[in-house]
Amino acid sequence: MTYEAFLNRLEGVRSRGPGKASALCPAHQDRNPSLSVAEGRRGILLRCFAECDKPAIVAAMGLKMADLFFDAPTSREQRPILKPKMIDLIALAFRFELAALDRRLRAERIFSSARKVTPDQLSDDDLDHALGLIERAHKDITKAELLEGVADHLRMKEFLERAHEQQRRIA
């Protein structure tokens, strides 16, 4: 079994660096991650800080101790059941808004600088460069509007999903 497949079978997984993670221990009622999982050279290393033994942990997951080794054969019923990752639409919308803000601020700095300069103060090469920057600033404004539209769409989608979920609960 692979390290990733093993982690997919656990709840509350938190990465602790490359090849290291913590998770809720399946062998006891765990509220805070007490199971340490690490990727060894030949297999998966486990340690429960609540002192559950490894066979109990593995049995609670419906596995055998041999499954902890990377070269162990995998039967059909032991293949990992991948859980779909839930996308946080609000966090994603926030990222789009930050990207839009970045573009708007960059464009505003260019426009502000351009207002202070008169074309007769610049050489032809400098004027071409300045006009190129102004063109880029206009494109940044257009892209910012697009990014803000995507952020609005994501927020609306999250709102509608929550409203639909509440209606299902009521019904």
Please characterize this protein's 3D structure.
- The structure is a single chain.
- This protein has 171 residues and is α+β, with helices and mostly antiparallel strands.
- The protein has 2 domains: 3-78, no CATH class; 89-170.
- It has 4 helices and 4 strands; from the N terminus they run αββββααα.
- Strands 1-2-3-4 form a 4-stranded antiparallel β-sheet.
- β1 (14-15) and β2 (20-23) form a beta hairpin.
- α3 (89-115) packs antiparallel against α4 (124-170).
- It is elongated.
- The mean pLDDT is 89.
Key traits:
171 residues; alpha+beta; 51% helix
Please summarize what this structure is:
By secondary structure, the chain is of the alpha+beta class.
How are the secondary structure elements laid out?
Blueprint lengths: L2 H6 L5 E2 L4 E4 L11 E5 L4 E5 L5 H7 L28 H27 L8 H47 L1
Antiparallel strand pairs: 1-2, 2-3, 3-4
Helix pairs in contact: 3-4
* Poorly predicted residue ranges: none
Number of helices: 4
Largest sheet: 4 strands, antiparallel
Shape: elongated
Across the major sheet, the strand order is 1-2-3-4
Number of β-strand runs: 4
Overall mean confidence score, pLDDT: 89
Q: H/E series, N to C?
A: HEEEEHHH
When the domains are counted, the total is 2
Protein structure class: alpha+beta
First CA to last CA: what distance? Answer: 42 Å
Cα Rg? 27 Å
**Estimated share of beta-strand residues:** 5-15%
Helix content: 40-55%
Give the assembly state of these chains.
single chain
